[in-house]
Amino acid sequence: MVLAFVSVKIGSAEQQSLHRAVLEGIKKVSGVLEAHLVFGRYDVVAKVEAKNTDDLSSLVVDRIRSIPGVLWTETFVTHS
């Protein structure tokens, strides 16, 4: 299993409702263990788990990045 933290930048900083909608969308993605709104460079940090790096890539690129309002992501893979 691969464990990672995904940092997410959301579109408009002024739209709090967009931040909540993106957060809820991320929480619904299979493989997301937890997700939280944060302050600073990123708007959301999510803890995710996947079978391998290919599945992790699919989780981030195909599912999280496809959520409306997501501008970009940065993924940090952890070592067990």
CATH architecture: 2-Layer Sandwich
Domain tally: 1
What is the overall shape?
Answer: globular
Number of helices: 2
Summarize the structure.
The protein is an alpha+beta fold and 80 residues long.
Protein model, in words:
- The protein has 80 residues and is α+β, with helices and mostly antiparallel strands.
- The protein has a single domain, classed as 2-Layer Sandwich (Alpha-Beta Plaits).
- It is 30% helix and 38% strand.
- The protein is built from two helices and four strands, in the order E-H-E-E-H-E.
- Strands 2-3-1-4 form a four-stranded antiparallel sheet.
- The radius of gyration is 12 Å and the shape is globular.
Keywords:
globular; four-stranded antiparallel sheet; alpha+beta; 4 strands; Alpha-Beta Plaits; 80 residues
Compile the SSE list and pairings.
Elements lengths: L1 E9 L5 H12 L4 E6 L6 E7 L2 H12 L5 E8 L3
Antiparallel strand pairs: 1-3, 1-4, 2-3
